[in-house]
Amino acid sequence: MEQPPKLPERILALFCGNAFLEDLLGDLHEMYLYKRETSGRFWSRLYYWYQAFRLLFSYTISKRKRDRSISSQYPSQILNTMLLNYLKISVRNILKNKTFSILNIFGLGLGMSIGLLALAFFVDLKQFDLFHDDAEQLYRLTTTINEEGNMQSYASAPPALTYLADEQLTGVEASVHINDYYFPIIKTTGDPIRLSGYQTEPEFLEMFDFPLVSGSKDALSQPGLVIITQNTAQKLFGDEPALGRSIETENWGKLQVGGVLAAFPKRTHFSFDLLAGIDPTHSLSDSNEANWTNTHSNYLYLKSRLTPAQLEAQINSIARSGDAFFKAKNLEASYHIQAITDINLGRKLDDNIGNVFETEAMLAFFGMALLILVPACLNYGNMAVANALKRSKEIGIRKIMGSPNRQIVHQFLVETVIICVIAVFLSLFMFDLIRREIVSMLVGGDALNFNLSPLLLLVFFLFAVGTGILTGLLPALYFSRVTPIKAIRKTISNQKVSISGLRKGLLVFQFILSLVFMIGIGVLVRQYHDSLNFDQGFEKANVIVLPIKAETSELVANVMAAAPGVSDMSFTSSLPGIPLGQALYFYNDSGMDSVRARVVYTDDHFIDHMNIEMAWGKGALIESQFERVLVNETLMNRMTNINGKGTDSLVAEMADGKKVQIAGIIKDYNHEPLNQRIEPMVLRLSENELTFALITVQSDDIVATMNDLEKRWGSIMPDTPFQATFLNSEIEKAYVFFITGIKIFGFLALLAVTISCLGLLGMVIFTTENRKKEVAIRKTLGAGTMKLLYSLSGLFFRMWVIALVIAIPLSYIYYDKVMMSIYNKFSGGVGFSEVALSSLLTLFLGMLAIVLQSTKVMRTNPADSLRAE
Amino acid sequence: MKGYLGEFEELVLLTIANLDREAYGAAVLQHIGETTGRKLSLGALHSTLARLEEKGFLGSYLGQPTATRGGRRKRHFVLTSEGVSALSKMKSLRDQLWNGSKVNLSAE
């Protein structure tokens, strides 16, 4: 017998869920057969479709669905009404206890903000390198070297192997070699610009999505041509077209711009300012030992449809030919294929290229976020339980009306979820404030953008909901287990009047954290202040810094020195008080050993002008048979060390083969910022390297002098802008990390203080509510307000003293030992004032919480608290 | 709104009364189609049947499966006493109005 079409029936079944359909389908079937007697197959089918469609939207279907849903065990309707009811009651509760809600929103908001950072970090990293075409087909070759059981993994690979792989690997669509040992230093006015980039092949721009704005990728196959990023172009040439311009570098000769890349998404592990062609000599000599065992800075990226395992098998068999070289060194090498999308948040690899964040670091970050979030959640729980009396009637009535435990749990969870969703907005605000500091603190942090994408917002929302559930569990489980009788008689919390040791411990811990962070702010502020005012051993007052082109130093000297108000001037290649970049090696007499020394080029007046003290010799540098240089004591000591005792040679050979005579020894002074150790340093006389003019101004009207200088500058250098600053403010910039540190510590202190105060408040509420009767009896017997306050705050004082006893020595040890190991100690470290200030602040905040809550209890009429008995 | 009976509802009730034991969806639809020439959809008919059931004028029970329906059971509809009384009330109201008519209503 002919059958009607099946599809409409399925659609009906799908749409109607569990509604009863049998009779309707039967009717449809019968009608089809009836229609078929008179009409053709097509028309009958069409008729059937039409009837089924009409049925789909008919009243009978919706009625049957409704009937069915009411009789099922988890009715959707009831769930909805219950949810609405939960929401309504939650909103009422939140509005009713405004102080309680605001405090909790604040605490949870702060607590979640670190979590938001960690999540933003995570979400950003997960999207790294996804923007390339076919990102899932991109891999790189990594190396694992087994040194007698000690495994060491590298992101790089032996050059010989990577070029062998080019010839022998099958199933690979493209491969790119990258060498990241490429960092041209570009001469301009002022400090030289240091760039870092990759030497690679034209295919780099095919495999990875870095589009060109101008020029062509073939620039990478011609020596001397480079492709620069938009940022670099902006830095070097401003808004002028960069294509075809040449760049003078100190260490890579003259380069010409052969292409400019468009701005690309930051989310990539690659980090480069420019790209250049790779040196093809690498590809030869795969029988050379160093080409096998030295993997440094050599990377191979592959595009392939094969699975990593297939590629790995091929690579490891190709690599057989190099095994002998490793064997000779008692090593064993194996190779792995890593998907490019696994690089970030991947396993730990040495010799990595670009910005890589490891899983361990991420876990530590999440751990820190949890460490701050969990106390915030527990505090909420404590406060909610402490507030139990206010809720007991509601819970009692709910229970008596037959509400199962589940519904009470739901009620509390809905409430905390609402609070957390509100709080996440506050966190978002905090997140916005601190994200730049965090990014600037992380190495390679500029690859992260932390932009608020819809995805990130969704993650934040889910996080808030999750936190809400986590937070609500404690009070929810507590309240759901209460028996109705106890609830209605308001005796919920009378079971235990004392506060458990665990909760006290938690609070003391929070106090310690707040104290340590607050003392930390003090230490940083003091260090910052002292660093700026420290006598670094050179003159920095009233000194104007003027970046110049080296070849113009004489002209500038002539013009500027004549200006009224200018008392002295000299030239240098690097500003005192700012980190130094250039270095060279001093050999000992036998030429076998060497000392690395930082180089400063100056004119012959620098030492006198900057008032730098000499240990021996004169400050003036004169060119004679040998170049005459000044060295600092540290360099002299090291030289003496490597030359052996006895010899006290004043002639030394430098790495460039030039012999120099040491004409004077400078007393050690901090040419670099104070956080750097005093390194061996040499002052050389040179006219070609002087990029800064230092001008001392003695004038009553600095502004007029500056204007005069600017006018003079304009007359000799009309094309170059006048960029004078004060040496003091340049030095200040070198300490900007302090400001970042102060902000971060400030944030952490705010977090810790707020959370601990909330915790304290919760405990005070708990105590006072439980001791209402006691307070009332004391009052009726004639106790004064102060006496009551004293008895209530006794607990807090004890905890505060414990926290102080632990926190102060801890701060001394932590800040003096740990901080000083990374930062030279130039001030007293932890001082009395910050300890006193932070202790008093916590005491004040704690007392505030106690006084506010206790006065509330004490003002109540004793009759109200006692009447119920 | 139990008392009110629409024209189509009345028609459906009367058809069910005519079909008696064989009053199920497809049969009612076919019968109405034959007697009145109206082209109805099954959805419209079942909606009305569901409403009449809600109002209490109809009851239903599931019958035996038959091969012509792909082995599916029929839902038989029967008039309840309320349905019967609603119909007869309607009839007597109409009769009363017919009888009281001052205009000759017979169409021949």
Describe the overall structure.
The complex is a heterodimer of chains A (869) and B (108). In chain A, a hairpin with a 2-residue loop joins β1 (138-147) and β2 (150-154). Chain A has 28 helices and 24 strands. Chain A has 869 residues and is α+β, with helices and mostly antiparallel strands. In chain A, the strands form four sheets. In chain A, strands 1, 2, 3, 6, 7, 8, 9, 10, 11, 12 and 13 form an eleven-stranded mixed beta sheet that branches. A six-stranded mixed beta barrel of chain A has the order 16-17-22-19-21-20. A four-stranded antiparallel beta sheet of chain A has the order 15-23-14-24. Chain A is globular, with a radius of gyration of 38 Å. Chain B is built from four helices and two strands. In chain B, α1 (7-19) packs across α2. Chain B has helices at residues 7-19, 25-36, 42-55, 81-99, and strands spanning 58-62, 75-79. Chain B has a two-stranded antiparallel sheet. Chain B is elongated, with a radius of gyration of 16 Å. By secondary structure, chain B is mostly helical.
Low-confidence region ranges of chain A:
none
Largest sheet of chain A: 11 strands, mixed
Kindly state the number of beta strands of chain B. 2
Q: Average pLDDT across residues of chain B?
A: 87
Biggest interface reads: A-B, 27 and 25 residues
Rg of chain B, nearest Å: 16 Å
Q: Outline of chain A, from the CA principal axes?
A: globular
Distance linking N and C termini of chain A = 85 Å
